Amino acid sequence: SQQGEEDPQALSIQEGENATMNCSYKTSINNLQWYRQNSGRGLVHLILIRSNEREKHSGRLRVTLDTSKKSSSLLITASRAADTASYFCATETGRRALTFGSGTRLQVQP
Amino acid sequence: DAGITQSPRHKVTETGTPVTLRCHQTENHRYMYWYRQDPGHGLRLIHYSYGVKDTDKGEVSDGYSVSRSKTEDFLLTLESATSSQTSVYFCAISELTGDGTEAFFGQGTRLTVV
User: Fold this and answer.
1) Which residues of B are less than 8 Å from A35 in CB distance?
2) Are the Cβ atoms of A101 and B97 closer than 8 angstroms?
């Protein structure tokens, strides 16, 4: 079963626009992480937000976490063509293993 | 890539044959993981290891076995490959950070079972 589910499954925007992806999860968490995957490549860690945080920024990334709703969102501001990728949320389970959502495919049109 | 190398990168095999995928890391990480990635499912954990000879099952372990005889190598074996095991397989390690753990992934192995 999937701990995290992303919404939307696919998103297409123009360069310069903002992109928002949402993630829902099922159980209590210590933290929630977001990863990016370029086509044909492994996943790359983007940002981690702890369960006691509500918002976190890193460059053009903004992550929010609502533990009461068991949901998180990832906002990419001023998107670029190079942001085209799939984005996954992940929650940490035992032995530091991660449970991933099904991902959002982001296409940024130049 | 945190010194993670997967081999082979691509493999085509026949149904019923055994297949072994290798994950090699150079930075002495204790925790290593095997995930598979299929369309619509994200990544799902197959097996993981928390030390030499210490392994445990993940969410989708049926049909797979693993071995870790030394810190740097984590092997994933499909005892008798089936078409449902056609997938992209990723190896990962985890590092402790101030906030939690961060995973680093290999480049993946694309396995096709025909």
Assistant:
1) 103
2) no
pLDDT in tens, A27-72: 888 899 999 999 989 999 999 999 999 999 999 999 999 999 999 9
Tell which of B4, B25, B43, B48 to mutate to test the A interface (max A CBs under 10 Å).
B43
Q: Which amino acid is at A19?
A: A
For the residues B73-100, what does the mean pLDDT come to?
94
pLDDT tens digits for B13-70? 999 999 999 999 999 999 999 999 998 778 999 999 999 999 999 999 999 999 999 9
Give Cα separations from B54 to A37, A43, B20, B47, B57 (angstroms). 29, 25, 18, 11, 11
- B94 CB within 8 Å of a chain A CB: yes
Of B52, B12, B15, the C-alpha closest to B31 is B52
A62 lies within 8 A of chain B by CB: no
As a whole number of angstroms, the longest Cα–Cα distance in chain A is 41
- Using CB atoms, pick whichever of B50, B92, B102 lies closest to residue A95: B50
The DSSP bridge partners found for residue B16 are none
Q: How many whole angstroms separate alpha carbon A100 and alpha carbon A50? A: 16
With a pLDDT cut of 70, the percent of chain A lying above it is: 95
Tokens of B70: 């030394």
Best residue in A2, A3, A41, A43 to probe B by mutation, most B CBs within 10 Å? A43
φ, ψ at B85 (rounded to 5°): -95, 5
Chain-chain contact of B42 with A88 (C-beta, under 8 angstroms): yes
